[in-house]
Amino acid sequence: MTLPELAHPNAAPPLDDTRDDRRMLRVAAAVVRDLSTPRASVYWPDLLISTGVGYTALAGAISFDTVSLALASGLVAILALYRAASFIHELSHLRKGALPGFRFAWNALIGIPLMIPSFLYEGVHTQHHARTRYGTAEDPEYLSLALMKPWSLPLFVMSAALAPLALIVRFGVLTPMGVAIPPLRKIVQERCSALSINPAYRRSAPHGAFRRQWQLQEACACLWALMLAASVVMIGTRPLLTYLAVHSGLTVLNQLRTLVAHLWENDGEVMSVTEQYLDSVNVPPPNWLAPIWAPLGLRYHALHHLLPSLPYHSLGTAHRRIMAQIVEPSAYRKANHSGMLPLIARIARGTASER
């Protein structure tokens, strides 16, 4: 692994070496040479178990008449399906052919049933890692939240609760309308076809094999959205309402994780690799809640920005190795934080100072 890969597999070297902790970058590249291969023996059982537990619990939430059992099942469904859904992040970084069949299986089991097919993220998330895009107006996954008004934080989190309804409209209404109305199709492709948080982001048209993949996934998601709407007539409202509640729960949880994945303190300037790292967040052990709200290694989000090609099961080992090798002064430890609540408080203090 070479130093340019620390920012992005195809990134240029840092623009200004004086702004980078060069020793940290060298150590990070050196200690993970044996950790870069995704292990099918980890990915497949994790996905299948999480999916199985999630759908079993969802069925329980729908069928249990006892409120406490239904709520408990709903909570389990939220956590398990949230973990399974988080594999979309891994898909955006997996090299072609690394895990044969995994992308198809994830879309069939999770992407289509939750109306988040992988085309919504693939080709989008990698732009967030691009060396000269991170934290700028061209970054689809960045907002300067810490520099915005105080009301922006609760709005950012709670708006996610409406995502399931928005996805039904996106695929069940806008997709078929776009087939009949080409100008609408272009608007939907540019503005409603990416899991992004930057409202100014506009997505480019897909090409080649990815275009065909996009079209197939979108067609399947459209059929699923229409089936969900029709289910009210066929089997009543409870299954759909429970599905929407669980979907909203996992989406809000993911939005909370997104809120504390970065410090959101950049004002649009191009940042060095180290500056991008310090604007990102690790929540390492001993925090025991982090694997729940930041599954699949997402608790090491700052480390992920240094080493985006590392599979999720290698991030904990990589973190321990780097911590053992790094001595002060170093930027590495400065991205380690104690938990979600202190991070939310820090970001909220930033918004308060912007009044």
TrEMBL record:
Leader sequence segment: none
Keyword annotations: Membrane, Plasmid, Transmembrane, Transmembrane helix
Record-level GO BP terms: lipid metabolic process
InterPro entries: FA_desaturase_dom (IPR005804)
This protein's record includes keyword Ligase: no
Ranges of residues in domain Fatty acid desaturase: 71-328
Spans through the membrane: 53-82, 102-121, 155-181, 221-246
One protein family per Pfam: FA_desaturase
Protein name, as recorded: Fatty acid desaturase
Organism field: Sphingomonas panacis
Organismal lineage: Bacteria, Pseudomonadati, Pseudomonadota, Alphaproteobacteria, Sphingomonadales
